[in-house]
Amino acid sequence: MKIGSIDFGDRPVFLAPMEDVTDIGFRLLCKRFGAAMVYTEFVSAEALIRDVKSTISKLTISDTERPVGIQIYGRDIEAMVEAAKIVEQAGPDVIDLNFGCPVKKVAGKGAGAGMLQNIPKMLEITQKVVDAVKLPVTVKTRLGWNQEQLIITSLAEQLQDCGIKALTIHGRTRSQMYTGNADWTLIGEVKRNPRIHIPIIGNGDIHSLDEADKAFDEYGVDAVMIGRATFGSPWIFSRENLDFNEKLDILEELLRINVERIDEKRGILHTRRHLAATPIFKGIPDFRQTRIAMLRAETMSDLLTILEDIRQRLG
Fold first, then answer.
1. Is 30 a catalytic residue?
2. pLDDT-derived band of residue 315, with 50, 70 and 90 as boundaries?
3. pLDDT 10s digits, 208-246
4. Angle in degrees, 0-180, between the axes of helices 244-261 and 24-32, rounded to the nearest 10
5. Which of 89, 182, 88, 84 is nearest to 127 (CA)?
6. pLDDT in the model for residue 259
7. Per annotation, catalytic residue among 35, 94, 101, 152
8. CA-to-CA distance for 281 and 287, rounded, in angstroms?
9. Nearest Cα to 98, choosing from 169, 172, 49?
Protein backbone atom coordinates (compact mmCIF):
# COMPACT_ATOMS: atom_id res chain seq x y z
CA MET A 1 0.00 0.00 0.00
CA LYS A 2 1.43 3.39 -1.01
CA ILE A 3 0.57 7.02 -0.45
CA GLY A 4 2.46 8.92 -3.08
CA SER A 5 5.97 7.45 -2.95
CA ILE A 6 5.64 6.22 0.66
CA ASP A 7 5.45 2.43 0.76
CA PHE A 8 3.75 1.09 3.90
CA GLY A 9 3.87 -2.55 2.95
CA ASP A 10 0.95 -4.90 3.44
CA ARG A 11 -1.90 -4.20 5.89
CA PRO A 12 -0.53 -1.13 7.67
CA VAL A 13 -2.24 0.18 10.81
CA PHE A 14 -2.23 3.94 11.45
CA LEU A 15 -2.66 6.13 14.53
CA ALA A 16 -5.57 8.54 14.01
CA PRO A 17 -5.07 12.29 14.53
CA MET A 18 -6.78 13.31 17.80
CA GLU A 19 -6.91 16.63 19.61
CA ASP A 20 -5.12 16.61 22.99
CA VAL A 21 -4.02 13.02 22.41
CA THR A 22 -1.58 12.61 19.52
CA ASP A 23 1.16 14.90 20.76
CA ILE A 24 4.72 14.00 19.88
CA GLY A 25 5.40 11.92 23.02
CA PHE A 26 2.43 9.66 22.41
CA ARG A 27 3.14 9.43 18.68
CA LEU A 28 6.69 8.26 19.32
CA LEU A 29 5.48 5.49 21.63
CA CYS A 30 2.87 4.34 19.11
CA LYS A 31 5.51 4.36 16.39
CA ARG A 32 7.82 2.25 18.58
CA PHE A 33 5.10 -0.37 18.98
CA GLY A 34 4.36 -0.62 15.28
CA ALA A 35 2.11 2.20 14.08
CA ALA A 36 2.85 2.43 10.36
CA MET A 37 1.81 6.09 10.20
CA VAL A 38 1.12 8.66 12.89
CA TYR A 39 -0.59 12.04 12.71
CA THR A 40 -0.32 15.20 14.74
CA GLU A 41 -3.24 16.68 16.62
CA PHE A 42 -5.43 18.44 14.08
CA VAL A 43 -4.46 22.03 13.36
CA SER A 44 -6.78 25.00 12.86
CA ALA A 45 -5.99 26.74 9.57
CA GLU A 46 -7.20 30.07 10.93
CA ALA A 47 -5.04 29.80 14.05
CA LEU A 48 -2.06 28.73 11.97
CA ILE A 49 -2.13 31.72 9.66
CA ARG A 50 -2.61 33.99 12.70
CA ASP A 51 0.62 32.51 14.09
CA VAL A 52 -1.00 31.34 17.35
CA LYS A 53 1.86 29.93 19.43
CA SER A 54 0.02 26.86 20.75
CA THR A 55 -1.03 25.95 17.20
CA ILE A 56 2.43 26.46 15.73
CA SER A 57 3.82 24.11 18.39
CA LYS A 58 1.67 21.28 16.98
CA LEU A 59 3.77 21.35 13.81
CA THR A 60 6.82 20.02 15.67
CA ILE A 61 7.69 16.58 14.33
CA SER A 62 10.62 14.21 14.75
CA ASP A 63 12.42 12.17 12.11
CA THR A 64 12.02 9.19 14.46
CA GLU A 65 8.25 9.16 13.95
CA ARG A 66 8.23 9.23 10.15
CA PRO A 67 6.17 8.75 8.14
CA VAL A 68 4.05 11.40 9.87
CA GLY A 69 1.09 13.42 8.69
CA ILE A 70 -0.12 16.85 9.75
CA GLN A 71 -3.87 17.35 9.58
CA ILE A 72 -5.53 20.74 9.10
CA TYR A 73 -9.14 21.88 9.29
CA GLY A 74 -11.03 25.03 8.43
CA ARG A 75 -13.91 26.44 6.42
CA ASP A 76 -12.22 29.26 4.52
CA ILE A 77 -10.67 28.33 1.19
CA GLU A 78 -7.84 30.86 1.26
CA ALA A 79 -6.99 30.05 4.88
CA MET A 80 -6.81 26.32 4.15
CA VAL A 81 -4.52 26.91 1.17
CA GLU A 82 -2.24 29.23 3.14
CA ALA A 83 -2.20 26.84 6.11
CA ALA A 84 -1.25 23.95 3.83
CA LYS A 85 1.72 25.95 2.54
CA ILE A 86 2.83 26.67 6.12
CA VAL A 87 2.45 22.99 7.03
CA GLU A 88 4.50 21.96 4.02
CA GLN A 89 7.41 23.99 5.38
CA ALA A 90 7.26 21.96 8.62
CA GLY A 91 8.26 18.91 6.57
CA PRO A 92 5.63 16.22 7.18
CA ASP A 93 5.27 13.31 4.80
CA VAL A 94 1.56 13.90 4.20
CA ILE A 95 -0.90 16.78 4.56
CA ASP A 96 -4.33 15.53 5.62
CA LEU A 97 -7.54 17.55 5.30
CA ASN A 98 -10.05 17.03 8.10
CA PHE A 99 -13.60 16.88 6.79
CA GLY A 100 -14.74 14.52 9.53
CA CYS A 101 -14.51 16.12 13.00
CA PRO A 102 -18.09 16.07 14.36
CA VAL A 103 -17.76 18.27 17.47
CA LYS A 104 -20.00 21.33 17.56
CA LYS A 105 -17.26 23.94 17.86
CA VAL A 106 -15.79 22.66 14.57
CA ALA A 107 -18.62 21.12 12.52
CA GLY A 108 -21.15 23.68 13.76
CA LYS A 109 -19.06 26.41 12.16
CA GLY A 110 -18.86 24.64 8.82
CA ALA A 111 -15.42 23.06 9.22
CA GLY A 112 -14.57 19.39 9.79
CA ALA A 113 -17.68 17.26 9.21
CA GLY A 114 -19.58 20.49 8.63
CA MET A 115 -18.13 20.40 5.11
CA LEU A 116 -20.43 17.43 4.42
CA GLN A 117 -23.19 20.01 4.10
CA ASN A 118 -21.25 21.97 1.49
CA ILE A 119 -19.68 19.49 -0.91
CA PRO A 120 -18.81 22.04 -3.62
CA LYS A 121 -16.76 24.00 -1.09
CA MET A 122 -15.12 20.82 0.25
CA LEU A 123 -14.07 19.91 -3.27
CA GLU A 124 -12.82 23.42 -4.02
CA ILE A 125 -10.69 23.44 -0.87
CA THR A 126 -9.31 20.01 -1.71
CA GLN A 127 -8.47 20.93 -5.29
CA LYS A 128 -6.80 24.19 -4.38
CA VAL A 129 -4.73 22.63 -1.60
CA VAL A 130 -3.61 19.83 -3.92
CA ASP A 131 -2.58 22.43 -6.49
CA ALA A 132 -0.76 24.58 -3.91
CA VAL A 133 1.61 22.02 -2.38
CA LYS A 134 4.00 19.34 -3.57
CA LEU A 135 3.42 16.90 -0.71
CA PRO A 136 0.78 14.15 -0.96
CA VAL A 137 -2.62 15.45 0.16
CA THR A 138 -5.09 13.06 1.78
CA VAL A 139 -8.60 13.47 3.21
CA LYS A 140 -10.39 12.10 6.26
CA THR A 141 -14.18 12.25 6.32
CA ARG A 142 -17.36 10.40 7.30
CA LEU A 143 -20.15 8.51 5.55
CA GLY A 144 -22.30 11.63 5.33
CA TRP A 145 -24.06 14.22 7.46
CA ASN A 146 -26.80 11.84 8.62
CA GLN A 147 -28.46 8.53 7.68
CA GLU A 148 -30.50 10.28 4.99
CA GLN A 149 -27.36 11.63 3.34
CA LEU A 150 -24.97 8.69 2.98
CA ILE A 151 -22.93 10.25 0.18
CA ILE A 152 -19.51 8.69 0.68
CA THR A 153 -19.59 6.45 -2.42
CA SER A 154 -19.96 9.35 -4.85
CA LEU A 155 -17.94 11.74 -2.67
CA ALA A 156 -14.95 9.39 -2.74
CA GLU A 157 -14.84 9.60 -6.53
CA GLN A 158 -15.13 13.39 -6.45
CA LEU A 159 -12.29 13.71 -3.93
CA GLN A 160 -10.15 11.33 -5.96
CA ASP A 161 -10.74 13.53 -9.01
CA CYS A 162 -9.30 16.45 -7.03
CA GLY A 163 -5.97 14.63 -6.85
CA ILE A 164 -5.82 13.31 -3.30
CA LYS A 165 -3.49 10.36 -2.71
CA ALA A 166 -5.59 8.47 -0.13
CA LEU A 167 -8.96 8.68 1.61
CA THR A 168 -9.72 7.77 5.22
CA ILE A 169 -13.37 7.00 5.98
CA HIS A 170 -14.78 6.94 9.50
CA GLY A 171 -17.75 4.58 9.41
CA ARG A 172 -20.22 6.95 11.04
CA THR A 173 -22.23 9.99 10.02
CA ARG A 174 -21.73 13.37 11.65
CA SER A 175 -25.07 13.06 13.44
CA GLN A 176 -23.88 9.85 15.09
CA MET A 177 -20.84 11.61 16.58
CA TYR A 178 -19.11 8.65 18.28
CA THR A 179 -22.27 6.76 19.26
CA GLY A 180 -23.66 3.55 17.84
CA ASN A 181 -21.59 1.19 15.75
CA ALA A 182 -19.33 2.14 12.88
CA ASP A 183 -20.75 0.90 9.57
CA TRP A 184 -17.93 -0.63 7.55
CA THR A 185 -20.20 -1.87 4.74
CA LEU A 186 -20.08 1.49 2.97
CA ILE A 187 -16.31 1.68 3.46
CA GLY A 188 -16.08 -1.69 1.75
CA GLU A 189 -18.37 -0.48 -1.02
CA VAL A 190 -16.07 2.45 -1.71
CA LYS A 191 -13.06 0.13 -1.80
CA ARG A 192 -14.77 -2.25 -4.22
CA ASN A 193 -15.74 0.56 -6.59
CA PRO A 194 -13.75 -0.19 -9.78
CA ARG A 195 -13.37 3.54 -10.41
CA ILE A 196 -11.48 4.04 -7.14
CA HIS A 197 -7.72 3.63 -7.50
CA ILE A 198 -6.41 5.53 -4.45
CA PRO A 199 -5.87 3.72 -1.11
CA ILE A 200 -8.93 3.54 1.14
CA ILE A 201 -8.22 3.64 4.88
CA GLY A 202 -10.95 2.38 7.22
CA ASN A 203 -11.59 3.87 10.65
CA GLY A 204 -14.06 3.26 13.46
CA ASP A 205 -14.52 0.76 16.31
CA ILE A 206 -11.17 -0.98 15.90
CA HIS A 207 -9.95 -2.03 19.36
CA SER A 208 -7.18 -4.51 18.51
CA LEU A 209 -5.01 -5.83 15.73
CA ASP A 210 -7.31 -8.87 15.51
CA GLU A 211 -10.20 -6.53 14.71
CA ALA A 212 -7.98 -4.72 12.20
CA ASP A 213 -7.22 -8.07 10.55
CA LYS A 214 -10.95 -8.76 10.30
CA ALA A 215 -11.51 -5.37 8.64
CA PHE A 216 -8.79 -6.11 6.10
CA ASP A 217 -10.28 -9.53 5.39
CA GLU A 218 -13.95 -8.52 5.17
CA TYR A 219 -13.78 -5.08 3.57
CA GLY A 220 -10.55 -5.15 1.59
CA VAL A 221 -9.30 -1.78 2.85
CA ASP A 222 -5.71 -0.79 2.16
CA ALA A 223 -5.01 0.38 5.73
CA VAL A 224 -6.79 0.59 9.08
CA MET A 225 -6.71 3.59 11.37
CA ILE A 226 -7.18 3.28 15.15
CA GLY A 227 -8.36 6.22 17.23
CA ARG A 228 -9.93 6.15 20.69
CA ALA A 229 -8.80 2.59 21.48
CA THR A 230 -5.21 3.87 21.62
CA PHE A 231 -5.91 6.00 24.72
CA GLY A 232 -3.61 4.65 27.42
CA SER A 233 -2.63 1.79 25.10
CA PRO A 234 0.19 2.77 22.74
CA TRP A 235 1.11 -0.94 22.67
CA ILE A 236 -2.11 -1.68 20.75
CA PHE A 237 -0.05 -1.65 17.54
CA SER A 238 2.13 -4.53 18.74
CA ARG A 239 1.39 -8.25 18.52
CA GLU A 240 3.63 -8.87 21.51
CA ASN A 241 1.82 -9.84 24.72
CA LEU A 242 3.00 -7.40 27.37
CA ASP A 243 2.31 -8.02 31.04
CA PHE A 244 0.91 -5.50 33.53
CA ASN A 245 4.30 -4.28 34.74
CA GLU A 246 5.56 -3.71 31.22
CA LYS A 247 2.47 -1.70 30.35
CA LEU A 248 2.75 0.34 33.54
CA ASP A 249 6.39 1.05 32.67
CA ILE A 250 5.23 2.44 29.33
CA LEU A 251 2.65 4.74 30.95
CA GLU A 252 5.29 5.98 33.40
CA GLU A 253 7.59 6.64 30.44
CA LEU A 254 4.81 8.63 28.75
CA LEU A 255 4.46 10.71 31.92
CA ARG A 256 8.18 11.46 31.99
CA ILE A 257 8.22 12.33 28.31
CA ASN A 258 5.32 14.75 28.70
CA VAL A 259 6.75 16.46 31.78
CA GLU A 260 10.14 16.85 30.13
CA ARG A 261 8.60 18.05 26.86
CA ILE A 262 6.24 20.64 28.36
CA ASP A 263 6.37 21.18 32.12
CA GLU A 264 5.25 19.29 35.20
CA LYS A 265 1.71 20.66 35.47
CA ARG A 266 0.73 20.39 31.82
CA GLY A 267 2.72 17.18 31.32
CA ILE A 268 0.62 15.53 34.03
CA LEU A 269 -2.58 16.86 32.45
CA HIS A 270 -1.55 15.41 29.08
CA THR A 271 -0.94 12.05 30.72
CA ARG A 272 -4.15 11.93 32.78
CA ARG A 273 -6.31 11.21 29.74
CA HIS A 274 -4.29 8.06 29.14
CA LEU A 275 -4.27 7.02 32.81
CA ALA A 276 -8.05 7.49 32.97
CA ALA A 277 -8.68 5.47 29.81
CA THR A 278 -6.06 2.72 29.97
CA PRO A 279 -7.58 -0.77 30.20
CA ILE A 280 -4.83 -2.09 32.48
CA PHE A 281 -6.60 -0.81 35.62
CA LYS A 282 -9.99 -2.27 34.74
CA GLY A 283 -11.20 -5.00 37.03
CA ILE A 284 -8.88 -4.14 39.92
CA PRO A 285 -10.96 -4.53 43.12
CA ASP A 286 -11.45 -1.52 45.40
CA PHE A 287 -9.68 0.73 42.95
CA ARG A 288 -11.98 3.78 43.02
CA GLN A 289 -10.10 5.80 45.63
CA THR A 290 -6.76 4.98 44.04
CA ARG A 291 -8.10 6.12 40.66
CA ILE A 292 -9.31 9.40 42.16
CA ALA A 293 -5.92 10.00 43.81
CA MET A 294 -4.10 9.13 40.58
CA LEU A 295 -6.17 11.59 38.55
CA ARG A 296 -5.82 14.34 41.15
CA ALA A 297 -2.06 14.10 41.61
CA GLU A 298 -0.36 17.42 40.87
CA THR A 299 3.31 16.48 40.97
CA MET A 300 5.19 13.82 39.05
CA SER A 301 6.65 12.48 42.29
CA ASP A 302 3.19 11.98 43.82
CA LEU A 303 1.86 10.36 40.67
CA LEU A 304 4.81 8.00 40.34
CA THR A 305 4.39 7.02 43.99
CA ILE A 306 0.74 6.12 43.39
CA LEU A 307 1.63 4.11 40.30
CA GLU A 308 4.35 2.28 42.24
CA ASP A 309 1.84 1.48 45.00
CA ILE A 310 -0.46 0.00 42.35
CA ARG A 311 2.43 -2.07 41.02
CA GLN A 312 3.20 -3.40 44.51
CA ARG A 313 -0.45 -4.28 45.15
CA LEU A 314 -0.64 -6.32 41.98
CA GLY A 315 2.93 -7.63 41.96
1. no
2. low
3. 999 999 999 999 999 999 999 999 999 999 999 999 999
4. 150
5. 84
6. 93
7. 101
8. 8
9. 169
